[in-house]
Amino acid sequence: MRKPPRMFPIARSITRPIARPIAQLCGCWLGIVIGCTLPSAGHLSPALAVEPQSDQPVQSARVIVPSGGVSPSSSLERPVAEVLQQLAQAQVVYLGEVHDSEADHRAQRFILEQLHHQRPRLTIAMEMFQRPFQSILDRYLQDKISEQTLLDRTEYQKRWGFPWRFYQPIVQFAKQHQLPVVALNAPSEVVRQVGRKGLDSLKLTDRRFIPPLSAIRLEPDSYRQRLQQLYNDMHQGKGNSQQFDRFFQAQVLWDETMAERISQLVQAHPDRLVVVLVGQGHVTYGEGIPQRVARRLRDRFPKLAQFTLLLNPSPDLQAPPTAGPPIADFFWMQPLPPSATPPPASP
């Protein structure tokens, strides 16, 4: 019997664990908001592409259905092919990555290929590109500009900065199969403005690529608590409540902007599968993006089918919560290649 589609409720009061190293969930949470330097992408020429490596670790992956509020032994392993078939029946699938993990990006490419085989009408939505640059992305997919021009005109290195070789195979796959690639992210200067001065500081010209302020919900409380811990850890207890409020507003703006665009895609083409490439922190517990998508679509799609798959989650994320639902629908676990196997612990 197939597992029914996971429905993310609009509002839910649940005690969630917050004592975890959650900075790892999304490497860019603080980078744009407080002006930290993003990772350097180095030289962005297409010639940067790495030599092909074996896909054996990806093909040897396991899929785990994580437990919720119970012992780790209750987590279940399911056949990869069966899970991919289930994902292919959804309307939205989130592939939660760690941005600097090459293994995660190889998994994304493999999963996209498998889903495309089952659902040729597929849209790839990417956090890595910002919404003002959609037309440039379209021109590249139409073969009207070069790859280097794409990177230059989308200001990829400045606005994202993680190595292009991680995402190049995915965008090339989309181009080869004539699949839409959608820029999800809010403009970094707008997110930074909110992080420094709050939502109320935005001028009309700042709001072009974000949802109406009335559609930005500063909730749920459990999400705020997790981000409060992250903020306190980063500031070593020296931040104040007003500064955190602005930080939280910036994070929610990020989530709401991406959720709005995903919702528009589902409404415009309900027959297409939307596969979202995004940092893990935006989708854990459904609180960042998925619940906001469900809120926007609940009238037209009351049984919206969304699935979240965390790619190679850390042991801390795999540990079950003390109460409430699991952190995601699925964990994608693949063995490390021999060159990446960590050395044995010292005696």
Structural commentary:
The chain is an alpha/beta fold and 347 residues long. The chain is 36% helix and 13% strand. It has twelve helices and eight strands. An eight-stranded mixed β-sheet has the order 2-1-8-7-3-6-4-5, sandwiched between helices. Strand 7, helix 12 and strand 8 form a beta-alpha-beta unit. Helix 8 packs antiparallel against helix 10 and helix 10 packs across helix 11. It is globular, with a radius of gyration of 19 Å.
The strand count comes to: 8
Which structural class best describes the helix and strand composition? alpha/beta
Distance between the termini: 47 Å
Largest sheet: 8 strands, mixed
Strand order in the sheet with the most strands: 2-1-8-7-3-6-4-5
* Helical amount: 25-40%
What's the overall geometry? globular
What is the beta-strand fraction? 5-15%
Rg from C-alpha positions? 19 Å
How is this fold's topology laid out?
Elements: H1 56-59, E1 62-65, E2 76-78, H2 80-87, E3 92-97, H3 102-118, E4 122-130, H4 134-141, H5 147-153, H6 156-159, H7 164-176, E5 181-185, H8 188-197, H9 221-235, H10 241-268, E6 273-279, H11 290-297, E7 306-311, H12 315-318, E8 330-333
Parallel strand pairs: 3-6, 3-7, 4-5, 4-6, 7-8
Antiparallel strand pairs: 1-2, 1-8
Helix pairs in contact: 3-7, 4-5, 8-10, 10-11
Summary, kept brief:
With 347 residues, this protein is of the alpha/beta class. The chain has helices spanning 56-59, 80-87, 102-118, 134-141, 147-153, 156-159, 164-176, 188-197, 221-235, 241-268, 290-297, 315-318; strands at 62-65, 76-78, 92-97, 122-130, 181-185, 273-279, 306-311, 330-333. Helix 4 packs antiparallel against helix 5 (147-153) and helix 8 runs antiparallel to helix 10 (241-268).
